[in-house]
Amino acid sequence: MANRGSISTGYDIDNSVKLEADNNEWFYNASPTAGNRRTFTFSFWIKRSALGTINASGTQYVAGQGQHGRMFFSGDYFQFRFDDGHDVRDMTTKHRDTAAWLHVVVAVDTNQVSSSNRVKIYFNGVQTTTIDFDGGSYPDIEDQGAWFNTNYLTVGTGPFGGSYSVGDGDYDMRGYLADFAAVDGTQYAPTDFGEFDEDSGIWKPKDLSDITWGDEGFYLKFDDSSSLGADSSGNSNNLTENNIAAADQSTDTPTNNFAIGNVLTSVGGFLVPSEGATRGTLSTSGPGNNTGGASLFSTIPVSNGKWYFEAQNTNGGDVYLYLGVGDVGGIENWGIDGEAFGQAGGPSVAWRGGGAQDGKVYINNVATGSADTWETEVVGVALDLDNNKVYFHKSGTYINSGDPAGGTDNGGQYDLPTAVDDQWCIGVAAYNLATWELNFGGYTAMSISSAASDANDYGTFEYAPPSGYYALCTKNLAEFGG
What we know:
This protein is mainly β and 482 residues long. 3% of the residues lie in helices and 33% in strands.
């Protein structure tokens, strides 16, 4: 059921917003006006970038209102609280696919005679019918719930601070949100927000211009970087940003899904992901310790085509850094067992940098070519799977006079080793202290000054991708293969 944005659609979602628990990033309305507390619908697209327990509460809130209005992931299960004592959840499905966008619809109408029709939950257009009540039940007939009242409303966290009148960092989420819709007064079906593609069967978004929002409904498209909480429903029910800046706007969306760091395999010495899984931090203690090599690589593997990627380490000093590609068939060697790209035991190619390191390219842990040292510069990868070559650049200049656009064999291109299953991932690795910023083009916490894109106008990079190379996103994959 996963939506990966890899199909053509007549409707495009241009933007999402990245929310990071470490930064206490959320939206709020401190004094909403009451609406219809019996009948309403929530629809949103979410791409999770952290799983399990990431905060003191053990839950990641998508939205909340007052003390008892709650939508959240706990143990990677989704749960909706109508009010105190009426919790509806699906304990059959763990939502752990951080590579894909998930569409969630919660449709409520307590005027319905059948209790199971009073709260309906859908994932990618399919209703979940295996319901566990967490000690509660469906709402009683004509119940008025905690939503669409006058209590403090949040998106991206829960209002649990003090007397439930402020967002609380113990409940923040990590991930991306797109097309967040809150409808006052109507219990809509998921087909009002999305549809199954006729050819692929993939669930995809629809234009929401026919939605009747009700007086207190709101629609967050996140398309205005100067006001990411702006309401596009026409009601002017704008939400206020908390620690959210224009830089938190993303082009990673349900209709063009970009690669991010794979949090399911960020193991070894643990490059702990944050910032929408585009930052990996290796520290001296805790979960991100420096007891071994750690790799963080792309959620999207590729087997053909030409692809571009940038990264930057922001920690100087005597640290071993690796930038490169690895074959998925050897993942247990360069990922799970704590080895890094380019080291022994798995098909991979990596350029080694960091303070006092040799600056050479390593193919399966064998150094080759001339040295070109680097430490905190923006570095990049141009991966040519049509010719099984890889190129590296420092600050926009390809090492050893590499020419990825021309493909000239002049010593600046490096042959990929024999693959196990010919599915290559792009990423970074490190020993010792490191903070890697990854940029696949959809979102990055790197400071970007030039905003260069590929020839299809996808991605935002510091340096322009070489001619014929593209950002690793699903619209490019659909055109050039993967």
